[in-house]
């Protein structure tokens, strides 16, 4: 299994993962999402398989991945729990792609959204992390709950 993942990783990963630089700004109390978002972490293409995505997540030591389509637009965020549940499901095959496990796109937030609004959105959608996108739908980072 490890050999297979390593082979898949080497063959596909360089074109599918894009690392974002880490933000040097500390979050501002009562500010906007731009003040608190983390721009670090890999972005992966939605045609990546679940197994490769789990490998990328483990290698990056992160609990989530930003997922983008072929045109570079953010389609969502996937967590380790979601990937593990999909992999452990009865319909799983090694051909299942990230795009296959997404329902609706989103939720997303904008960098100019206030932290209060983002907090309401996260509670309403029952998520611990939100992709932050620009006006064109490109991923800028992630707003995650502090642990």
UniProtKB/TrEMBL annotation:
Q: Which Pfam families match?
A: CBS
* Residue ranges constituting the CBS domain according to the UniProt record: 34-86, 109-143
UniProt keyword Ribosomal protein, yes or no:
no
Give the record's keywords alphabetically.
CBS domain
Recorded superkingdom: Bacteria
InterPro entries in UniProt = CBS_dom, CBS_dom_sf, Diverse_CBS-Domain
Stated name of the protein = CBS domain-containing protein
Supply the source organism for this entry: Streptomyces globisporus
